[in-house]
Amino acid sequence: MWLDIRADLPEDLRGVYDIVNMRLFIAAIKGTDLLPVLINIMTMLSIFANVNVSAAEPGGHIQWQEINLATVTVVSARPEMDRTILEAILHELQNMSYADWTQHLAQLCTEQGMLDAWTDQYRVPPEYRVAWSQTQFGACEEISLASYDNSSPDAEGPRFRKLLDSAYPELIKGVTLQHELEVTVARKAA
Question: For the chain, first and last CA: distance in Å?
Fold first, then answer.
């Protein structure tokens, strides 16, 4: 089943989920698109959630994990390693102002009437940096296809994808992106 999370939800998805887990939507949602997405997620949540084994609790929960672009840095296994390409990618990431909504997600949940909204941050451990950097590259590619100018081979989108492709030699030598994951949890009011 294909679902456009921005469009009206089918009736069979309304109020049926105890928990909705969202992950890495930063590549798909601009700040201006966030409110309709959040409202749809809230619509999917049940009024009473069976997350407690002994009894149903009021309201289903969302759990939303995103990358906080404000925390991204470039790190290397050794200080003398060339980091030029990953530094250029970092510069591009820091200019994606439409993706700053991740830092305010708990507040938006509260403003929409959700309860017990909070966000916690988790630094990606060093042993996972290469894998998470590759994940970040995939998200960046999606962003470049959806949000950048792709009208010609020299346009912003193709240029950024070439930059991503050229970063792999640095990545396999131990230069990676370090960032924090933000997990936001909130409960639907009964």
Answer: 28
